[in-house]
Amino acid sequence: MFLFRRGTGRLTPEQARSRTGDGTAVLLDVREVPEWRAGHAPGAVHLPLTRLLAGAALPPDAQDRPVVAICRSGHRSRQAAKLLASRGVDAVAVTGGMNAWAKAGLPVVDERGQGGRIA
């Protein structure tokens, strides 16, 4: 049984925070390393879309769990959710990405755990 519509579903930032914050799913940030370092959602795990497209496995914290993919604006996370669904992962994307996350007033931290910014 899947928690999400596989590979095609989208969540608002608030829904994503709720589902990842309660442990129902893991938030997977698919942006590139400089973007991640500048600012990401607390508790997110990181795997750039370029590595995912090259066949990289999910990070251990994301394996065998529903995945909520997030990027800067939502485009890459939709690609990631579709790719993950094709691999049998229960995955959805966050509408509007980290831009919408920050606009909703949700926390963003940098690589040191301090106040981050969306790059």
Any overview of this molecule?
- The chain contains 5 helices and 5 strands.
- It is of the alpha/beta class.
- The protein has one domain: 3-Layer(aba) Sandwich (Oxidized Rhodanese, domain 1).
- A 5-stranded parallel beta sheet has the order 1-5-4-2-3.
- The chain is globular.
- The model has no long low-confidence stretch (mean pLDDT 93).
- Residues 1-20 are annotated as: Disordered.
- Residues 21-110 form the Rhodanese domain.
- This is Rhodanese-like domain-containing protein.
Strand order of the largest sheet: 1-5-4-2-3
Indicate the percent of residues in helices. 25-40%
Q: Which CATH architecture would you pick?
A: 3-Layer(aba) Sandwich
CATH topology assignment: Oxidized Rhodanese, domain 1
Pfam family, one: Rhodanese
Protein name: Rhodanese-like domain-containing protein
